[in-house]
Amino acid sequence: LGSSSSVPFTSIFSQLFMTVVVPLIIGQIVRRYIKDWLERKKPPFGAISSCVLLMIIYTTFCDTFANPNIDLDKFSLIIIVFIIFSVQMSFMFLTFLFSTRNNSSFTPADTVAIVFCSTHKSLTLGIPMLKIVFAGYEHLSLISVPLLIYHPAQILLGSVLVPTIKSWMVSRQKALKLTRQPKAPVKV
């Protein structure tokens, strides 16, 4: 296109490392030393995690849609929603197909984990990455809109597909148990 840009790779890498990797490593190290205490006290980490996630989602929505520079019409938003749902369904379908091939050694439970875990991405990682990579960019709010739609879309699609995938998994597990059982000897 005849244009060029410089990307501060080392700065971005170091910020991502400090924001994502270092807290993960510190958490794993600290967990090793306080594991017994955590098992005795059982702090409500699930509730804390959910509250933090909701706060991140809320502040991101506020930052995105409070920005006066965001120029997003309803038609474009509908198109983005449609594309994201299509991409999410396509990824889930492809991972299902690849994990259920005849030569794969995955169990039905493995397939369910693969379908859900491989396609799900979180705002808690995506938003800090966007803020670091696009720091100072005036259209950061506009760039974060697909991620803001993708996260709720994966939750919605997951909850809609759970009954279908659960019944598939149960029926496949029953079929596998029947094929693995030794046949009883026939009396003549």
Automatic annotation (TrEMBL):
Protein's recorded name: NTCP7 protein
Protein's organism: Corythaeola cristata (Great blue turaco)
Gene name for this UniProt entry: Slc10a7
A GO cellular component entry from the record: plasma membrane
InterPro entries (UniProt xref): Na+/solute_symporter_sf (IPR038770), Put_Na-Bile_cotransptr (IPR016833)
Family, per entry: Belongs to the bile acid:sodium symporter (BASS) (TC 2.A.28) family.
Annotated keywords: Membrane, Transmembrane, Transmembrane helix
Pfam family, one: SBF_like
Chain coiled-coil ranges: none
Segments traversing the membrane: 12-33, 45-66, 78-99, 111-137, 149-170
